[in-house]
Amino acid sequence: KIKTVALTNFDTERLRIILENGIPVVSNQVQHSVVDMRPQQKMAELCQLTGVKLITYGTVMGGLLSEKFLDTNLSIPFAGPPLNTPSLQKYKRMVDAWGGWSQFQVLLQTLKRIASKHGVSIPVVAVRYILDQPAVAGSMIGVRLGLAEHIQDTNAIFMLSLDEDDVNSIQEVTKKGKDLLGVIGDCGDEYRR
Q1: Which Pfam families would you find in this protein's record (predicted)?
Q2: Which CATH number, 3.40.50.2300, 3.40.50.720, 3.20.20.100, 3.20.20.210, labels domain 5-179?
Q3: Which of 58, 64, 50, 66 is nearest to 12 (CA)?
Q4: Among 86, 84, 107, which Cα is nearest to 95's?
Q5: Could you tell me if 56 and 136 are in contact, meaning their C-beta atoms sit under 8 angstroms apart?
Q6: What is the pLDDT of residues 148-168, one digit of tens each?
């Protein structure tokens, strides 16, 4: 027997239909980052009203939201770190849809200033920002055992508290990006096309 259901990449409309039919959904796993704020535009309100929690992935955009990509120029071949994983390539396309690499560099510089202020890294700030969003219960951080385990950064997330200036600085940059809800659609729509 099924007691509860957890979903992945359901949009707000489909989640609403499921809930209206009495199916006990506990969470919806969605892509959510400082670049991809689509879950906060429609999904979070429904989740808050119904008690459904958001579990986020892509919160550090496959590693793009890190010092490794700060002050890099990907338009020059071999000048920057390679986009050598499917995740990096996917999230680079998200950056392009949001505002391009130059705008992304402004975001990374902002995140780095905040990270330096708190003695942490860019990914720690990026994840903390998303964990502080309405309806978000947790975030999945990818690891590659022996290559990138992120243990210290993961622990630092729980110690970090972003202040009002930090949040305002991030929002000042992100509001200059394109509305991905209008460009791509609601959560998970990129998988339904």
Answers
A1: Aldo_ket_red
A2: 3.20.20.100
A3: 50
A4: 107
A5: yes
A6: 656 778 889 999 999 999 999
